[in-house]
Amino acid sequence: MERLHVTDVAPRDGLQNQSVPVGTDGKLQLIERLAAAGVASVEVTSFVSPKAVPQMADAGDLLPLVQQRLPALRTSVLVPNLTGLQRARAAGAREIAVVLSATETMNRKNINMGLEQAAEVSEQTVQAALAAGLRARAYVAVAFECPFEGETPLDRVVALARRMAAAGAQEIVIADTIGAASPAMVRDRLGALRQAVAAERLAIHLHDTRGMAVANAWAAVEAGVRRFDASVGGIGGCPFAPGAAGNLATEDLVLLAHRCGFETGIDLDALLDAVDHAQALLQRPLGGRSSAWLRGQRAKRQPA
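^ thats the sequence. predicted structure below, dont judge the formating
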């Protein structure tokens, strides 16, 4: 049976924009629950400015704890530049991710750089990570639509993906940062991207702003992509992108995969335990579109 590979980004992209502070122990317990459910890859944190993203201020403490408790878990961390890479290396990072937005304005809002400078910094950071023996992922953000510039030109997305692949990033993550994509756009863009980057190196990161994340995920599957970001409970949103709602919920993606004959290695009942923990941390209800049904099915299986 063919496999879909899932990276849960809740501890980083999910929590980074939440108004309720989440402590290191709470984040660690969330990651432990994800691992217990069979999630094999987690984006743990980001080594960005604590002033810009206070929720990630404990990155240097959290990452070593996760790797000590869960040595078999694939852990990645976001780094914005070479300084962030240095901090990540000092904390024992094994894999990093850079985020390169595909528009001039989004880069200036996000990292206070123009597009060309941001691309150069991303290249340098990926190459330095590889030289240090780390793995590297590269996000191409606002790859469908930018909140400031509108629809992002496809040729620019393809050029940036090719550039990050040439820099050596093992995984190129095409990000629908504000959830503006449609299945037709996903199909067309991934079809073009597969001409520039090998399918096994492509991943997709979806948001559910317009209620189409699951449909977009299936379009990506049909386009040959087998690597997905998702966030347990659907939590998430970019602090620098107006209108960026929650991520594609991990439970929705896993249910889609299992119902369509793909393996993920993830147990849905156990994944709901992670959703429960995230709800307690954030003090509000969470869950993807399938959550109520999944909870009902779990209740039926539990002894009276």
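The longest strand covers residues 95-101.
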